[in-house]
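Protein: Adenosine kinase
Species: Xyrichtys novacula
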Amino acid sequence: MASEEPKAKKQKLSEEEKKQESPTKQTPVKLSPNSLFGMGNPLLDICAVVDKDLLDKYNLKPNDQILAEDKHKALFEEMVKKFKVEYHAGGATQNSIKVAQWMIQEPHNVGTFFGCIGKDKFGEILKQKAKEAHIDAHYYEQNEEPTGTCAACITGDNRSLVANLAAANCYKKEKHLDLEENWELVKKAKVYYIAGFFLTVSLESILKVAKHASENNKLFCLNLSAPFICQFFKDNLMQVMPYVDVLFGNETTEDVKEIAKKAQALPKVNTKRQRIVVLTQGKDETVMAQSDKVLTFPVLKVEPKDIVDTNGAGDAFVGGFLSELVQDKPLDQCVKAAHYSANVIIRRAGCTFPEKPDFK
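Structure follows.
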């Protein structure tokens, strides 16, 4: 595809290079509340260092992300009984919005978050945690299902995530997103981020937000999130893909650069912006496809002994990236911030962080 119009793309690329490759405006702007919007599955993370026997018992891979089935229901209780657990406010999108807000610091409530919780104790904890993180969380609260949970089973520097969506699966466009006061918050944003996990919950909500972003030349970002999304929810994914300006993905066994180029070349509705594809590979270099070129960025080194928990590293990467993107910073600066925040998070349990970042 790139060979069809090399001159036009080359010319555009050189202009972008002159402008330091920022996909939005070139001058950093003063941020206002609700500039960054996220929508996803709010979950309470139950984290514990476990043994191989537990993984084997529930047929879990050491490094994976799956949705809980009936056979996993007892896992949550067993973890609490047998291991020392920690509770953290989680869910992929909410984590990323929290990290972005932490990187930004001031003003508070730059990040908005929508999702569904239950009217229960875990829901109250999530609301409190969101408030402490200075994000403007507006939850759809319902009685039918309890607040969702995610078991993070840690062995060495691997983590196996088992999500029991429960209430998170009950998000309703007409009951929450369509309400005038909520839609006004959506309209205030200029950058939108949704993790692929939400494709299993409310495709219509994602499409409404994605179309709004596209029609108003704002940035819509999506994360492929986990292998099962591409395998089992491909139709939903491909309905959203034409609206995606920035696509995030995680390591893969195939040729990462080739995958980045192919994803970048998929059809796109808003032709004013070319799609940017950012693929991470754990400790290996990050790959970014933009226009007709593929760039690589080495990650920050970390000693294996300093790694506490890789759960949340991907979410933190996206949060760091978004924190600069929403300030109209160049893309290389977005990647630097992404690498920094991921590097901070893997040294701690859960997707947690110190009081203030030390990012220059």
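Remarks: Residues 1-20 have pLDDT under 50 and may be disordered.
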